[in-house]
Amino acid sequence: MSGNFLWTLCCCDVATQWVEMRPAWNRGAHAVGVALEAAFGSFPLKKRRENARWIKRFEKEPKTPAQRVLESPDVCEADKQRVRDLLAANDFLTLRRRKEKLLFAFTRQGKLLDSQIIF
């Protein structure tokens, strides 16, 4: 490959499944390090990392990203409260009922009008 172009660095926070993409001018250590710092700084919930090792662990039962954040000792209480507030404001059953109602209307009428979509 020749010429100047940007590479895309994609980072995913495993606990929250938040994805950040950052441009890097090249694949050198400095450019990638700058992009990583920018991506990690943009994750919605800050966590600290000790040493240079990543420890992998596997869950015995599946958990939602919200459950992982609320159970994590690395997440501060203010961030946990933000997650609790988001869960309270976005009830899963209400969202599911709304989705089913819209899908039913779509299949019955063949299309949805913008005025019928309520979010």
Distance between the termini: 46 Å
What does the main sheet amount to?
2 strands, antiparallel
Share of β-strand residues: 5-15%
Summarize the helix and strand pattern as letters: EEHHHH
- Estimate the global geometry from the Cα principal axes: flat
* Mean pLDDT across all amino acids: 79
Q: How many alpha or pi helices?
A: 4
Q: Could you list the spans in which at least 5 consecutive residues all have pLDDT below 50?
A: none
Largest sheet, spatial ordering of strands: 1-2
Q: Which structural class do you get from the secondary structure elements?
A: alpha+beta
**Rg of Cα set:** 20 Å
- Can you give the helix content as a percent range? 40-55%
Count every beta strand, where a strand is a DSSP E run of 2 or more residues: 2
Jot down its keywords.
about 120 residues; alpha+beta; two-stranded antiparallel ribbon; 2 strands
Strand-helix topology:
Blueprint: E1 7-13, E2 18-24, H1 29-42, H2 65-71, H3 77-89, H4 92-109
Antiparallel strand pairs: 1-2
Polypeptide structure, described:
This protein is an alpha+beta fold and 119 residues long. It has a domain at 1-44. It is built from four helices and two strands. The N and C termini lie far apart (46 Å). The mean pLDDT is 79.
